[in-house]
Amino acid sequence: MKLSIITLTYNNLEYTKKYIDSLYKYTDDFELIVVDNGSTDGTKEYLNSLTGNVKKIFNDNNLGFSKGNNQGLDLAEGEYIAFLNNDILLSPNWFEEAEKIFIRENAAFVSPRQVNPHFDDVNENNYIEYWNKNNKYEKDFQKTFDDCSFSCVVTKSNVIKQIGNFDENYTPAFFEDNDIKYRAIENGFDIYVSNRACFFHYGSVTSGRLNLNYKKNRDYYFQKNKFAEYLSLNSEEGIRLKIQTRDFEKFPLNLFYEVFKICGKVKRRIVKIIKK
Fold first, then answer.
1. How far apart (Å, rounded) are the C-alpha atoms in residues 28 and 98?
2. In the chain, fewer beta carbons within 10 Å around the N or the C end?
3. What is the pTM of this model?
4. Rounded distance between C-alpha atoms, residue 32 and residue 29, angstroms
């Protein structure tokens, strides 16, 4: 099996149906693993009606993003593994374009470009036309931590074996994606986005209805990963440099900078006294 696709569901049946139609339209040679987190709106019945290479897990309660995806990982048999939300629509060659990057680069995660109706003048009927018309990226792909979206992301089974599964302390959602990307960079991998494929994301269909412990998860993320704040400032190259320089943990850069500034002030005062 080349590709295992893991999707979580929690109600919102109308979006799941659109997603499944899009998945089968634009994807070949895959197994689908659906983890339902306690739906009560007919989603279970719909999932049971799906035929073909489909594996299903039905949880009694909403176990969250990390736990649900880890359950799916236990069943995944593919060389590649994709984590796809049930509130997205795919485009032609979304997986093939991601695979090209894995072949060329030391990639851990690759996402197509996200098209979002909250930010773009686009809808579910014209997103592919919109993308083809407005895609101005010169390069086929690029490294990026923030733009690699776990609403639609591809990895490889050997990457997960090396860096580990999702951290289930992030519950029910948010920052588990940054955490696993951070661990990938710590292990020497890179994070990419493909500029030659897109996906349409309705956005916040499920998360907008849940208490996601955003602040708690955020605090845990920065407490756990000492240099995570630098990712947004200096990208993955910056964090890799800081990781390689482990002395920063014993002698933090900000403390060094403060000492340097104090020494500079003392030096300037001494120079003024001497000149007088």
1. 14
2. C
3. 0.82
4. 10
Cα–chain center distance at 272 = 55
Distances from the Cα of 229 to the Cαs of 47, 75, 108, 144, in angstroms? Answer: 40, 34, 20, 15
Contact (Cβ atoms closer than 8 angstroms) between residue 81 and residue 157? yes
207: left (phi over 0), alpha (psi -120 to 50) or beta: alpha
- In the block, tokens 């200096």 appear at 234
* pLDDT-flagged residues of the chain (< 50): 237, 241, 244-251
Which residue in this structure is represented by tokens 């590709």? Answer: 3
Separation in Å, CA 193 to CA 3, 49, 173, 185, 263:
18, 34, 22, 15, 44
When computed from its CA atoms, the radius of gyration of the chain, rounded to whole angstroms, is 22
The angle that helices 214-224 and 176-186 make with each other, rounded to 10 degrees, is 10
